[in-house]
Amino acid sequence: MAGVSLQGLLSRRGLIAIAAVLGWLGLTVQLYLILLLRWEAGASLLGGLVNFFSFFTVLSNTLVASVLTCALNLRISRGQAFMLHPAVSGAVAASIVLVGLAYSLLLRHLWHPQGWQWLADELLHDVMPVLFLIYWWCCVPKGGLRLRHVGLWMLYPILYFAYLLLRGNVLGLYPYPFIAVDKLGYPQVLLNALGILAGFVLVSLLLLGLDRWLGKRPAPPR
């Protein structure tokens, strides 16, 4: 039995490693493409880096890849313990699921990427949301989430939206068309943001319900 358990552990760790590599690969390809465009246009590479981290997709996928990397136990630290806390993993799960849903419902029809951009697009918006949700379901301890956690999770999209408005007001740049104040105006943008926040809360409540349900299930025999 111990050999089977060890084999299962190694298999799980291998799958987590593959997911982590795919996450970092998607981010790396996307960063390369952004910096390449800036280089060819003679624009600031530092500005390209700032632009890269101004996307909710990039921030959320960075969190996903970081959690998966910490789950490999390559280095024991307080930062690793924080990233692997069920409340933090739950927040990351809610965020990356929102990324996948928002992209499919609001953005996918607006463009048709090719080549390396298609690869980055698929990894960041389709593959990683599914892989991390599977990781959350199978590997994150259940039963510890509470409604207050959902309230804390909401700070992430709220602060991100506030940052976008401030950045857009200064630079006139908006990473997503549904928050482009210069074209839609503040009332419509605020309405759009509230709709997306409502989607985030709905996803979070669903994860909370699943956490409580899975936490009540008896542990599988070893």
Automatic annotation (TrEMBL):
It comes from Pseudomonas protegens. The keyword Manganese does not apply. Signal peptide: none annotated. Keywords: Membrane, Transmembrane, Transmembrane helix. InterPro entries: Pr6Pr-like. This is Pr6Pr family membrane protein. The chain crosses the membrane at residues 15-37, 49-72, 84-106, 118-138, 150-166, 186-208. The lineage of its organism: Bacteria, Pseudomonadati, Pseudomonadota, Gammaproteobacteria, Pseudomonadales. The keyword Nucleotide-binding does not apply.
